[in-house]
Design goal:
By secondary structure, the chain is an alpha+beta fold. The strands form two sheets. Strands 1-2-9-4-7-10 form a six-stranded antiparallel sheet, with helices on one face. Helix 3 runs antiparallel to helix 4. The two termini are 43 Å apart.
Length: 287
């Protein structure tokens, strides 16, 4: 680890940061920290970056500023959180109301896919959580771990970054403008119906008729709320139920397939193997 706690010589900011060098194992397999710290602006300034193999998350602890990212300008105020892909050009600045930030740069082999899913589900570069305190706490915990000599600090950093991502997604997925109570209730009613009637043959047209919803709207609403299509969700439920029956009953494959809504034994076996990578019989023998 390359630790560097310091006050910068630049007159525009005062910062305390740690530059972290993860192990080769962490670089290959884990979410890993690159930098973590705090910044207090002493006068108006702008920072610009691009083509960094890094993701940046920061919380505005005090003051105001703005972020320019993907051709858009976002006003930032106390309590706002930023989460961006630093491979793209960006800049952030503060002017009259000088800000204080708490931040980290990080990366990992799975992070590109995670960020893509985050944006697909409606995650925004800037959002305002109901409470910014958990974000501040996570940044401080990451700082403390990074400056420690703990022999498993890479694992603890990975855990902390996963907690940070969970907070980000919890607060920013399905933005407020998509969360009208009627839409949420409608999608929840559909989900509850699928949970109860998963073994029955179900079509979008049938669901549309049951819930008096346009099937295209229903499809969009469900995916926005739960991050998967109705068909994928049904398949997950059916496969999970089949696994339970394979492990804890002696029912024949034909019976299990029919009771789980996966059809006759041949179709059931093909569908099961496509998801689990093994046949139902192999799964049963394994347990």
């Amino acid at each position: 680890m390359d630790k560097n706690n310091f006050f910068t010589s630049a007159p525009s900011v005062r910062s305390s940061r740690i530059l972290y060098t993860p192990s080769p194992f962490a670089r290959t397999w884990l979410l890993h920290l690159q930098e973590v710290g705090t910044l207090q602006a002493l006068k108006p300034h702008t920072s610009r970056r691009e083509k960094l193999q890094s993701y940046l998350c920061f919380v505005v602890e005090d003051g105001e500023g703005e972020l320019v990212y993907e051709g858009k300008t976002y006003g930032l105020k106390t309590g706002d959180v930023v989460f961006i892909d630093c491979r793209k050009a960006y800049s952030h600045s503060t002017d009259i109301h000088l800000w204080t930030l708490r931040w980290c740069h990080f990366y990992g082999p799975s992070l590109t896919g995670i960020y893509a899913k985050y944006r697909e589900r409606g995650g925004r570069p800037v959002f305002t959580p109901a409470d910014a305190a958990p974000f501040r706490q996570i940044f401080q915990q990451l700082y403390n771990i990074a400056e420690s000599s703990d022999y498993i600090r890479d694992m603890k950093i990975n855990e902390g970054l996963n907690t940070l991502l969970t907070l980000v997604m919890q607060e920013s997925w399905n933005p407020g403008e998509r969360r009208e109570g009627r839409k949420r209730k409608s999608c929840m009613d559909v989900k509850n119906y699928l949970d109860e009637h998963f073994a029955e043959k179900t079509t979008l047209d049938a669901l549309s008729a049951v819930f008096y919803m346009d099937k295209y709207y229903l499809t969009k609403c469900f995916k926005e709320e739960y991050g998967t299509t109705i068909n994928q969700y049904l398949l997950q439920i059916r496969i999970t139920k089949a696994k339970q029956m394979l492990r804890f009953t002696d029912e024949k494959l034909e019976t299990i397939g029919l009771e789980c809504g996966l059809g006759a034994a041949n179709y059931f076996s093909r569908a099961f193997k496509k998801i689990e990578g093994m046949s139902p019989s192999e799964y049963r023998e394994m347990w």
